[in-house]
Amino acid sequence: xxxxxxxxxxxxxxxxxxxxxxxxxxxxxxxxxxxxxxxxxxxxxxxxxxxxxxxxxxxxxxxxxxxxxxxxxxxxxxxxxxxxxxxxxxxxxxxxxxxxxxxxxxxxxxxxxxxxxxxxxxxxxxxxxxxxxxxxxxxxxxxxxxxxxxxxxxxxxxxxxxxxxxxxxxxxxxxxxxxxxxxxxxxxxxxxxxxxxxxxxxxxxxxxxxxxxxxxxxxxxxxxxxxxxxxxxxxxxxxxxxxxxxxxxxxxxxxxxxxxxxxxxxxxxxxxxxxxxxxxxxxxxxxxxxxxxxxxxxxxxxxxxxxxxxxxxxxxxxxxxxxxxx
Length: 326
Hints:
Elements: H1 3-32, H2 39-52, H3 56-63, H4 68-76, H5 85-98, H6 105-123, H7 126-129, H8 131-152, H9 157-186, H10 201-217, H11 221-228, H12 234-242, H13 251-265, H14 272-285, H15 289-295, H16 297-320
Helix pairs in contact: 1-2, 1-4, 1-5, 1-8, 1-9, 1-10, 2-9, 5-6, 6-8, 9-12, 9-13, 9-16, 13-14, 14-16
């Protein structure tokens, strides 16, 4: 496959996944904002969205004070913000248009219709009338895009590059989400406090809503209940979102998919890119949450993000814009 074609397919899927992830985070913050909470907690929630996307400096330069309206407009409508929902859907559609001949009619029409519809919804201010419904619509369109892709595309390199983009983006987003949410509450998180240092009831109630919001942002609330059948505990939230291979949006599950699709597009078993992905996946497969927490969750996730970024750069150099790897 031509590297330019692979590049468009890879980024089409990354941008669609990024739009969904942004919608998930905004939807949870929007719903949480309607619960009783302090002004500081509400502010931290909206600030966290910007921190996850590394957009806090850009937002402050444009808007100054962090407000719910300012953050939602910046992350939904702002065409100059490359991580806004409208920017991601536009980029996904443009990448799809560039390789129209490689896609099935159903995949192209799904991408194109999503772009046309989001413009109509923003012009008629449907987003402002019901933000929650708008965020659910973005999630649905992303689900539809993935389903149509898997259901209609030939199972060849084109599909593998699209899946590769989806799951590389998902692993990056989940790691950022877990890092920011845990770091905001605990500094660097090393595990639960000893019983005599347990939080008062009011703090425990707030913690429940905080951890529930994290789980809901990755559609993991019901999954957590089914897997653990227990009250929500930070250590188990971390384990579910990092190490569980059966949790669809976990780091482990995402890296399993990255490794699987990467192995299908490379003919070199000694590929350094494949080895890099394999080591990352192996550490998740044989990792233990107690060991991760003992060294500090923030430190672990920071290193993971650095390695995922290196992996993305290696994939680009080896497959999308070929040149000798350093």
